[in-house]
Amino acid sequence: MVQVRVLGIALDAARQHIVLLKPLLEEPGTGRILPIWIGEQEATSILIALGGGEAPRPLSHDLMKTLLETLGAEVEKVEVTRIEDGTFFAEITLTTPSGRRVVDARPSDSVALAVRFQAPIWVADELLDEAGIPAEMVDQGSDEEEEKEKLDEFKRFLEDVDPEDFQG
Question: Where are the chain's structural domains?
């Protein structure tokens, strides 16, 4: 297993969201990055947590965090373990009052919780080799100011959005 960080959220050519996971100790533009396709809501949830922001109302992952904390549990670590037929699998290791528990989960939910708990994220070495892409394809080094601007713009959108805006 190799420890990774969330490099960011990207969109593919079909406008599908991708979370990009990069090994912690690799320099920008080197090594491999693991792209995992995720849903729009999960992408939003991860972006908000990465930016240290809060949604006007708790998102599902905020609720999960509150429930776990209320029960005296916390996320110890997240592991992205394998891919089968194009589907990624992950496990969340919880520390609970009754001991350690490992829960099967989608990688998107796992990453969203790991970011909220500031828990380490790990990826199986074989998975990074098999499904990873060369870092130079996506990793140009991060422009923190540009990322902050994108997050601020999204936060403004969340403040002004009305559920009726989404009715057909």
Answer: 2-140
